Amino acid sequence: MSHLAQGFGVKLKWLAVPDTDASLLAKALQVGPLTPGAWADAVANAYGNGWLFTPPIDGWTLVASTRLGPPIGQPAFVQWLGGLSGRIANPVYYFCTHRVVELHGWAAAAEGQVARVYAYLGERDEVLVDIGETAEEELDLRHLHDDGPDAWRPDEEAVFELAGAWTIDPRDLDGVETATLPWTVKPAG
Fold this sequence. Notes:
The model has no long low-confidence stretch (mean pLDDT 92). The chain is built from five helices and eleven strands; from the N terminus they run E-E-H-E-H-E-E-H-E-E-E-E-H-H-E-E. It is an alpha+beta fold.
């Protein structure tokens, strides 16, 4: 029996990890227990301070939650992401977007080392963090969305486009057939 996936991503944080079992990710994130659930319920759960763990889709397992990791602009974020990639022995890609304050960010880590972290807060027109070498895909996005020298202000669309270039755009999951249901972790309390 197949199940039809549901997209997500707006005003949310998510990880993309190549071919990793959801239970391993839940253990590494120190959340659980995992419960299978319908796609609509699992996505709603991620937006309601719970967690969504997808089955593998096009070689990627996605994890989404409003509570995923420390805020991207804080020093603890780098330690958290590097530690997570070391614990699961797999590359980890992180994305976040929140249109109310125009927070848009992304990061990549592998083998316990963080290679890239970038976050922009439009509410203050401030780059919160810019660590590591700018990836070629980021440069491509800057050329598409540039308003002049040093004027690029990444928006929500840039986050999704970069997610699609590096991993998978979670908005594109609508209607994708999966062999299993996603898993959820209900909010604490």
